[in-house]
Amino acid sequence: MTRTIRIGTRGSALALAQTGTIADALRRAGENVEIVKVSTPGDRSHAPIAEIGVGVFTSALREALLNKQVDVAIHSYKDLPTAPEPGIVLAAVPLREDPRDALIARDGLTLGELPRGAKVGTGSPRRSAQLQALGLGLEIVPIRGNIDTRLRKVTDGELDAVVLARAGLARLGRAGEITETLDPIQMLPAPAQGALAVECRVDDVDIEHLLRSTVDDEATRVAATAERAMLAALEAGCSAPVGALAEVVEDLDADGSVVERVSLRGVAAAGLDGESVELIRASAVADKSEAERLGRDLAAELLDLGAGALSGPGRNSR
Ligand SMILES: NCc1[nH]cc(CCC(=O)O)c1CC(=O)O
């Protein structure tokens, strides 16, 4: 009897698309795979994420893993709380999609073309702060719901535009509706945006090795490690208005040999009430093996620059 690996996922179209790619990779490696949908409070409630709390999309899946209802859990990495979960290991971080945010606006408009007072929908204080900081006079409208619901608000004329992760749109085959991909200089994504987290039980060493060898991408893991270490060190969990983007880059060592380094940019918003938005930015580079320390150091620098004065309601990195 060959084993069947049960993969737990949320039931949203996005989650199923993400899980499908991992299931396919495991099938190509000769494994039997079964996909198990797990409903989470985040799927059932329409309250703002800031009210229902961190981990709304992920804790039910982790429970199903610990209860042995499933053997693998697949999350959007950016939705995972930064605190490690006892009994669970992050077995793989697959190759990341484009991590940037995207604008989907009426009439093919870009950010710069939207008129003052244009209504832009987002439920994310991170996106909201960075949009306000552009000084374009945009009116930020809080929204929630799945990607389809959000896009419909633009087609229906209720909003002039929405901002969403490019990765989610791409996975749903809707990247064609993007009217502008936002440059990270204007809009840093959420830490680990566009990446998946593939978890299994700590004692399931076989499954861990299988996942590591079939779906893990080292550069993505290194980048996400730096971004999430920064977030964790800002002591804000995933509810702070924080953006981060790391990339593995080739560099020349002192002796002229090519080395891989990790380059990290971070932003934190302070004074997030109404009109007054102050963004604090910093960046740094370190050896690839120092991703975790780089993230912590950059957080310390952001705190020195005043990020500790984080304020405002509904802190949320997404
Ligand atoms: N917070 C919701 C969420 N969680 C993961 C994604 C898709 C993108 C990703 O995997 O990072 C989205 C939608 C969005 O932010 O537009």
UniProtKB/TrEMBL annotation:
Pfam families: Porphobil_deam, Porphobil_deamC
Modified residues (S-(dipyrrolylmethanemethyl)cysteine): 238
Residue ranges of domain Porphobilinogen deaminase N-terminal in the record: 5-208
Cofactor details (free text): Binds 1 dipyrromethane group covalently.
Keywords from the UniProt entry: Porphyrin biosynthesis, Transferase
EC number: 2.5.1.61
Transmembrane segments: none
Superkingdom assignment: Bacteria
Listed GO MF terms: hydroxymethylbilane synthase activity
PROSITE patterns documented for this protein: PORPHOBILINOGEN_DEAM
UniProt xrefs under InterPro entries: HemC (IPR000860), Porphobilin_deaminase_cofac_BS (IPR022419), Porphobilin_deaminase_N (IPR022417), Porphobilinogen_deaminase_C (IPR022418), Porphobilinogen_deaminase_C_sf (IPR036803)
Gene3D superfamilies: Periplasmic binding protein-like II, Porphobilinogen deaminase, C-terminal domain
Reactions accelerated catalytically: 4 porphobilinogen + H2O = hydroxymethylbilane + 4 NH4(+)
More details: The porphobilinogen subunits are added to the dipyrromethane group.
Function: Tetrapolymerization of the monopyrrole PBG into the hydroxymethylbilane pre-uroporphyrinogen in several discrete steps.
Full protein name: Porphobilinogen deaminase
